[in-house]
């Protein structure tokens, strides 16, 4: 059997991925009528319906659901092939990462990567949004979550542990922090963070009376860390991200008790691109350096 027209296959893949003809049309720069026409052509070629046309949406039929994953994989292989060809002229590695990981772990170490791979330039995109590798420009990503993501190679970097930290000056303001109860004498940054209750339960304190405004939200750990360094209060932070500040005595971790979150940090990239040289170079570099982390 000869292949159906590539345009029809491309339209089907986009419509199956979105579950919506209108969104597929927007992605491909077509009208919805043109999308419907291409789907009809493909269905005639296959000899079976690929979508159920419902009043305000479409859904894949059993045959369509069996066909869709293979089409997505095929286009990923094509994208990877063209990306590999581009790389010899571009030499650019695009990394998408959550802000805290970028600010506290990755950026301070990128000089090492540049020294090992001087022909590669790095573009860093710091965002909380989860990048869709099939639609957005990115080679690798750093994500935080509890589970792995379908279609992506996922390397676990480390677990999101947490423990109280504060500046030496703030600790000295009450004669030092010797017991967990001493923390309750100090202002707490982001007291609504659920990590606080988990940690205090670990040290035998139920429903701690935290000093601070429950409405306060600093958002990212690296921002909370800056506030802690400035002596504004006690933060509940992940030690991996503040190793340098702890070693230099800018921050104090008064207790060895560390809580563990359900989510972890991951290095991810599309399965079809696992052998692209620049991705392989970054993966090997990062996994080599992550050995510094004690988990």
Descriptive account of the structure:
A 6-stranded mixed sheet has the order 4-3-5-8-6-7. Strands 1-2 form a two-stranded antiparallel ribbon. The chain is elongated and about 80 Å long. It folds into 2 domains: 80 residues, Arc Repressor Mutant, subunit A; 205 residues, D-Maltodextrin-Binding Protein, domain 2, CATH 3.40.190.290. It is an alpha/beta fold and 295 residues long. The N and C termini lie far apart (54 Å). The mean pLDDT is 88. It has 12 helices and 8 strands. Strand 1 and strand 2 form a beta hairpin. InterPro entries: LysR-type_TF_proteobact-type, LysR_HTH_N, LysR_subst-bd, WH-like_DNA-bd_sf, WH_DNA-bd_sf.
Kindly provide the name of the CATH class of the largest domain: Alpha Beta
Q: Give the tally of β-strands.
A: 8
Q: Kindly name the structural category.
A: alpha/beta
Note the overall shape: elongated
Main beta sheet strand tally, sense and closure: 6 strands, mixed
How far apart the termini lie comes to 54 Å
Annotation field: number of helices: 12
Reconstruct the topology from this structure.
Elements: H1 6-18, H2 21-28, H3 32-46, E1 51-53, E2 58-60, H4 62-90, E3 92-97, H5 99-106, H6 110-116, E4 121-126, E5 140-145, E6 152-165, H7 168-172, H8 180-183, H9 194-202, H10 221-229, E7 235-237, H11 243-247, E8 259-270, H12 277-289
Parallel strand pairs: 3-4, 3-5
Antiparallel strand pairs: 1-2, 5-8, 6-7, 6-8
Helix pairs in contact: 1-2, 1-3, 1-4, 2-3
